[in-house]
Queue: 2 jobs
Job 1
Amino acid sequence: MVERYHLGKDTVVRLLFALSTSTLLSLSLLAAEPEVPSSVSYQLSFDNVVHHEAAIQVRFDAVNSTHLVLSMSSASPGRYAPHAFAKNIYDLKAMDSTGKALPLQRISPSQWSVAQHDGTVIVQYRLYGDWGDGTYNQIDRTHAHLNMPATLLFAENYAKHPATLRFKLPDANWKVATQLQLQADGSYIAPDLQYLMDSPVELSAFSQRSWKVADQQSEATIHLVLHHQGTEQQLDSFTEKAKAVVAEQQKIFGEYPKFDYGQYVFIADYLPYVDGDGMEHRNSTILTDERSLKEADYAQIETLSHEFFHAWNVERLRPADLEPFDFQRANMSRNLWFAEGVTNYYGKLTLSRTGHFELQAYLDKVVTALNKVQYSPGRQFFPATGMSELAPFVDAAVSVDPTNYANSFISYYTYGEVIGLALDLTLRTEFEGLSLDLLMRQLWLEFGKTGIPYTEQDLEQALAKLTNNPAFARSFFSRFIQGQELPDFAALFAEMGLQLTQAKPKQAFLTSATLLEQNKQLKVDSNTLIGSPLYQAGVDKGDLLLKLGRTKLKSKKQWDKALAQYKVGDTAELSFSSRGKTYTTQVTFAADPALMLTELKDATQKQLHRRQLWLGSLSNT
Ligand SMILES: [Zn+2]
């Protein structure tokens, strides 16, 4: 999952899936598998797409309990916050094999109990969905974009049973994109509940490109399915970028994951009415963006790169504290800095190696993350493992009351990305020939490929083994992962022929909070940061800035103009109003803390070579 502007999914119990199958397809593409008898069968029809509704029927056969308990998930694999998916289903009816109505009792907000059945229970309900991302559903005239936890009622008793799905497509041009397996009778099958819930489905008149990949371990077909309003040429260009990402990442681990059915599917919706997101699954990923490929100048490749890296890191190389995934509650892990953060690091590094990012563009991405971690006050409250544990509160979680996350939280995506960077540069400069690539490959062979979930201690021991230096591993984990220190990045970057400097050392600075012009007033529109001059002056979110020195403040322009009159270390009078009362105080201008990362003019051959090994394509090594 990408960070929830965008964010993302990180679990599904792997072991259960070894059985499963996956395919993408329009019916004509793939030889269908013979039918597997299943005691759970779903039918999804879409006769009311104009009002964002689907009609769903599920049939349970061989029901051997007096009461059949039906559940709607309240968590989505890969999202850490709880979700009330049951809120969007209604018109629920139950009947037996003869069609006789059965009593249905709601036993909890997301569960129902059905009694008096004849061994068969058939349930019908309506589903509403109009939010196209990696967690929810969108049903309209153009597509049915379905995330299974938000779509399907299930019975826990049938968790280990295969389930079939049949889609009644409302439009002859629509096709089916999914990692579920097509059967000869046109239905799709999942071997069990976990795989079913992990299998999003796109039904639309999408375009598609496919290519084969192979290595000493396996061969697979990669499908890129795109529902968009752009051109086939744009899809061709995007596919070339995706092919480069897929090939480059294989070189880090030395092999592709064994995709359960020899298929992997990128399911992309780049449409003005979806919400930007990315969500990885075992043999597929959901990619959504409200911008077109042209509007975003193919920036969507960043999310694709992040999500494909998850095919190894988290879908198969998995933290033990996320196992097994519980559909009824939020799932917490201390290792999201690694599962998401290191994936964020490689998502961008891959794009430097494929040449999508020019050097300076990549360095700007790196320093943006570094500035967030270096200057966010949150690091004084939690280390990276602690930030990981806060995911259930921050990962697309909804709450009414405001938070102070700007001061108390650093995303484990960004924090982990910076730790990945620190570890990679440290390994490359202190241990000849070593790199984070080699650590990822070692972890893959030991835990990912074997399907053994890793613990925090396993990660440290793997580093000790790679470096043959347990003291180094202990120190790195205790200082930078379980501790709140940051390494000397300026020294590490210098080894790569790069210089880390303050971008505007002489610029007077009071705050990085968002300032909003409203009714000819200047409002502070985000939390002021602990340690910043405006925070020390007692100004915070919601307050109005009235006067700085002799300048009355009605606009951002006047604020910038007033600031420009001062030097670092100067003091000035500031008046502001808070809760309707006016206050006047003294502020002292600090230097703008933002860092920048640029090339060292006179880098040595050794430094340039090291940088090439780091940022260049692995196919050159
Ligand atoms: Zn992710």
Job 2
Amino acid sequence: MVRIGNIELPDFPLLLAPMEDVSDPPFRAVCKDNGADLMYTEFISSEGLIRDAIKSRQKLDIFDYERPIGIQIFGGDEEAMALSAKIVSTTDPDLVDINFGCPVKKVVCKGAGAGVLKDIDLMIRLTKAVVNSTDKPVTVKTRLGWDEDSINIEEVAERLQDVGIKALSIHGRTRSQMYKGEADWTLIGKVKNNPRIQIPIFGNGDIDSPQKALEYKNRYGVDGIMIGRAAIGYPWVFNEIKHYVATGVEAPPPTIQQRVDVIRKHLQKSVEWKGEVVGVLEMRRHYTNYLKGFPHIKEFRNQLVNLKSVEEIEAVLAEIAIRYDGLVPERKIAAVATEERCD
Ligand SMILES: Cc1cc2nc3c(=O)[nH]c(=O)nc-3n(C[C@H](O)[C@H](O)[C@H](O)COP(=O)(O)O)c2cc1C
């Protein structure tokens, strides 16, 4: 068992990474169904919450069926972070997560996200402000450092633990790498194996298969793994990893019927959360990955992304389920544009 404060997770938990415009309630619902043990909201601006911005407020939506769930905030001002931690806590999440890894200019230039990696004293003050403003367990998600010359994750981990965080997720890249190159987990392993570190350490970065998950579990000894892009359009990745870690055998890939069922659930939740017009629109970016690898699927995908009503979409999904019944596609990881993505 892994404990984050009073939250109990199974051994080697799998976490759905916070992903702006992706890890919203509809997507989280299908990841929960398929084995995600802990999930996070998209990152929310502390200033946006204080200004009561609608978009920030809506991101606070969490549901009991998806627990344990963490709400992630970002910001560079102590007072704003303290106040937003209070606001977030009123929605009763299981934990409050702080984003100290977002590499995007518009966040970094406000001295937030990965921008804080250049000023560890500020990082500690911001974290203290949040810890002192909520009774929820506080966790942090960050990167190895600002750039190659200022990698400071070992010091950061110790100092964050000292001010009371209950778990740390580390993306194995520096800010200057953005998403380039390979995530380097050696330092994540060093943090985990530091005898001073008592809190759970979750590794993150480029886990895109059950084999890699098991390999990194054994090599770096992390308490669990956080998965982002590999889950987009493929929420089955969580149970597939669990199956492989437990048995050493790959689980069969999802059938077309299982995919259609997940699309239906995702669509239903999307419409429930955002109404039919926006709900149907927001689904359009997911069809590609859900239906990847089936022969001549493009014509169906083109139909799906042009339909406006749930009824019409349902009819096409029913046709897809019949047409591809019994076919097993090649499993492909979703390639996601990440240049301007926060983490
Ligand atoms: C579309 C997208 C949106 C993201 N948004 C966030 C975010 O809001 N907060 C955050 O901490 N990380 C965010 N990230 C980073 C992921 O949480 C994760 O650290 C990163 O994708 C590396 O993990 P992966 O290789 O498993 O994808 C985002 C990544 C992507 C691809």
